[in-house]
Amino acid sequence: MTAPTQPLPLHDPRLAEHYLSLIGDGDERGASELAVALLDGGTPAQRIIVDLIGPSQARVGELWAANEWSVAREHSATAVNERVLAVLAARTTIRPSRGRITLACVDGEWHGLPARMLAELLRLDGWRVDFLGASVPGRHLITHLHQTGPDAVALSCMIPTRLPRAHAAITACRAAGVPVIAGGRGFGPGGRYAERLGADAWAAAGEEAVTRLADGWPPPYVSDVPFLDSDSFLGDEEYTHLVRSRPQLIATAMSRLPATYPVAHHYDHGQLEATAEDLGHIADFLAAALYVGEEQIFTDFVEWTEGVLAVRGVPEAALRAGLRLIRDQLIDFPAAIAMLDAALAR
Amino acid sequence: MTARTPAGAGEPLAPMVTDSPAPDLLRAAFEAATEAMLLCAAADHTVLLANAEARRLVPGLGIGHDLAAAPLPALTRAAAENADSFRYEHEGRCVYGMRRRLDDDHYAWFLRDHTEESERAAALEIERSRTAFLAEAGRRLSASLHVRRCTRTTVELAVAHLADAAVVVLPANRRQSAWVRLVPDRAAEEGMLRESRLTDVPGLVEALGGFPPIPSRWLDASHVPDWLFPAELGPIGALLVTPLPGNAEPAGALILARRGPDASFAPEDELLARVFAARAGAAISAAMLYREQVDTTAVLQADLLPPALPEPDGFELTGSYQAAREALRIGGDFYDVFGPAGDSTDTVIALGDVCGTGPEAAVLTGKVRQTLRALRLVHAGPEAMLRVLNEALLQSSRQHRFVTMVIGSINRIDHGRVRLELATGGHPAPLVLRNDGTVEEVPTSGTLIGVMRRTVVHPATVELAPGELCLLYSDGLTEARGGPAGTEQYGEHRLRQALADCRGMPGVVAVERIRQLVSDWVHGGNKDDIAMLAVRAPARAPLSLRGGGVPNTSPFLAAARGGDRRTRARS
Question: Which CATH number fits domain A94-232: 1.20.120.1770, 3.40.50.280, 3.30.830.10, 3.40.190.10?
Fold first, then answer.
């Protein structure tokens, strides 16, 4: 690292644009070469991950939401980012100097890249990292904890519908005596839901998590174990009823749909399946909002869905019809109805 | 208490109120009361009458004494301040006093000795905190099955409740003992210790040897070796070494230290440490047993889990295996890949499903994979492999267990194309994703393996153009139940649709996407194993998902490489 090199324009928007086009074309080699060149030019791997790969992945999500990129392209780009991370990992050897940490995405959570980036950042910071990957069933996670005895579990959740399962995982980890740091926007603005679900800490993004874990970890042991708390079950009977009646809710909504939204008469098989899936999402986000007791989970979802549907030419009326069809079936669900009304009143 | 006779004892009582002498009976009752009472004149605060209990409680206080000069400082203060109550604690004694007005000229002090009650309350408090400590210890120690975590918890609890510093030393393994230490203001430290050094610590070898604990007073704290505790801890005043009882042999030893010249471990402390050590020992030995089991399982598992896939030239191989929801990540589905061997240049892939799940199915899976590996070495083709495997299973299997599977032989041919010879034995036929987005089923069929003497196998050959993909999968994929109704199978139709949507994706992306779609379909609760293996002829680089090509050269790349960087990067 002696030869002077001109500073690399890591923050140059043209570099970001170029990298985005590489991953968008599935050009694994090109993207890897660019990252390796930056690394060889003296840019720390952390900066490449945080300032190049991270923002590019955020752009990928935006481009998909804006219907500019297909699902295939989104997935390919993500895969290239994963490969680039692997290439960076292979070129940076760090002697573990801190403790051991287990990283996992909540069961059902398939957005693995943010956790993967954190895994690399933690490794570069001297942690011994066990990255279990996307969608890790709770039992596998706990088995792993008993087998490896880590100093911390980092749990990633990007979508609030996985919060009930995140809660189960957090409770189980803490019952096994391992403190949990939660991460990902699934835990709400400012990680608001993370604390309610019993996490010891929360971090918005990778670098913040590294900082949080670098100092004062583990947090002091809290003697009131979570499974003895009355709070160890969030949600109430409304949540339970909603989850249990999900199939009937969707079936009934589907059968009533053409009457309230006549266009649906002409839906083909694929459109009907997609509609049933969307109704399922409404039920799932509603359930998550009830579980955590946060209306915002549901209203945020409705707002986001409107945007996604609008750019795909689906009229707003379709979503509203779906919300009404669910609402009209709910009797004795005051909290759920209030959430649906709030969403409809927007 | 003094042995001196209290003033006034046995003496006739002076008349307390001169103009109306109290009847003798009333006076006797006053004298016999168990509560200490002092009758005083309000005018000059002199004691007019003191009963036996009062004379016992406040020796030296007699009739006619001025309260301001009473031999109980708290009482004199109360009198001086004209207070209505006081509380006196001194040298373990505890006295409460309360004043009541009797009439305009008289008041009475009622005194109560709380010494015993206080002692009882203090003893109860100690007992309570011990119970709470042991309850917390039980809860925290039982939480983990990991030896390191258990030993850490042990020192944490010990430092919080029993001593200033604590060390756990585990029995020597290959002449090395693992230890964990916790001292104030430091994080827990760990390390290894040569077995020969154990003798440096008084009582440690005995504790690890399973001998009864040696009382602390017999252990000379001045003989503690320098390496046991950091210097900042200061001189150790008392040392206690307690065995951690385990499964028939000690699970380790707990060393507790208190600092300062006057420190000691009282017999109750030693008893408590022993009770705690019993719990910690049980937790650590259970964790040790678990570790042995895990180590054994891991060895077995390593052979049964899907293999790491080679990265052959000319085609992409991607596998995915998801065990049913069980802690043991092995089951009845499997895949394997056998690279070129000897003069066979093809790569052989196999994906199958043994009936059942869990360890039994996994063992049969292992046998099948081993048989295939051997058959591969004698250059058997897919069809021959299935036939021989059928024979072998019929002859060896004790129970009626059968296998369904697909075997394929992969060869690169010209222009980046890939040829697959495929044969199936009772397994769903593989699907091929063409470049135009159509999905075809490979026309191969055959009977189950391991059931009938005669097998019927119809092999088929497919060719993949660059960018095309062939997917082998187990029926756990199509039979996964979920969807809006929660009970509907994912089905082949949805699989074909999902595969069609994967057009242009690299194999690894396509497989991951299908896996995700099925997981979403079942809401994460897959009841059966799911295995997938994809073969893809790579698209010609640069692949473009948006149609147009992109320039390969980058000004940023060139700038970044600059000068000798290039050779460094390549070395």
Answer: 3.40.50.280
